[in-house]
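Q: Structure tokens for this one, please.
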Amino acid sequence: QGSELSGWAMGRWTYEGIDLNHNFADLNTALWDAEDNDLVPHEFPNHYIPIPEYYTFANATVAPETRAVIDWMQRYPFVLSANLHGGELVVTYPFDMTRTYWKAQELTPTADDGVFRWLATVYATSNLAMASEERRLCHYDDFTRFGNIINGANWHTVPGSMNDFSYLHTNCFEITVELSCDKFPHASELPAEWENNRESLLLYMEQVHRGIKGVVRDSDTEQGIANAIISVDGINHDVRT
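A: Here is the predicted structure, written as tokens:
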């Protein structure tokens, strides 16, 4: 298509007409409704939220690609992830969906907002294009004012995003990296794009070593305990072994 000449929607939908970026189950609404009714976490979980029944029906508008990714996420206990997009230079972090359903933009942080802002900052500050003092704006938004990171919902609401689904249905913390102003860089530009992102990708992966880690064991048998729930005071989002 050439540099920045294609429309924002080019390549966005699958052959079936599904936007994969909005195709995951909306678990946010169920959580927030339960929070508003003081049901969390004693009657409604604050993590590992189950997929709603309607989403599993054969006639549900769920792409086979989305179902495959969900199966993959359920088989492997990922803890850190990033999905890569094009068309901007910014790193976004959950929540991607606004809590006030009728708002197009609204700051909507998770219970782990500090961790997510750290993860986004690690990538943004080591990305050569984002960190360059000579960088120009891609379009209209000046993300340099915020250190090239932003809460996803505070940019534009995305119901059914993979980031929100990962956080609410699994142990995985996931961010979105908008890699480049160009959605379709020329082949000759790809080596430079790789150099822009190589170190930030490596540093991001290294963040799996942050925080507390270990094995929860049975005190009598010393065997590891699966699905032990770990709660941290002051953070209304548990994780499981």
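A few notes: Residues 20-212 form a domain with the Aminopeptidase fold (CATH 3.40.630.10). The two ends are 46 Å apart (CA to CA).
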